[in-house]
Amino acid sequence: MKIFSFLFALLLVIFHGAAGTGFAQRPRPFLRCGYRGTFCSPGICPRGNAYLGVCRSGYSCCKW
User: Fold this and answer.
1) Tens-digit pLDDT profile for residues 32-48
2) Vertex 30, ends 29 and 33: CA angle to 5°?
3) Sheet holding 38-42, edge to edge
């Protein structure tokens, strides 16, 4: 009986993570960066700047 409670909890965790996302996620489009205090940075954003997403392959969109 303990295995049933474990499996039930595991299924809840799996379905909670999949809720609303669909099983096959589409790739997200690149962000339009370089306006309103945003800029593209190769690799990760410099220290003190917030990460917003991906500008293009290998570049991060950062906010001043």
Assistant:
1) 888 889 999 999 999 99
2) 145
3) 38-42, 59-63, 50-54
Joined tokens for residue 28? 């997200």
Query: What pLDDT score was predicted for residue 30?
Result: 73
pTM for the model stands at 0.51
Rounded CA separation 35/23 (Å): 34
- Three-class SS state of 52: strand
Torsion of CA 16, 20, 22, 26, to 10 degrees: -130
The phi, psi pair for 9, rounded to 5°, reads -65, -40
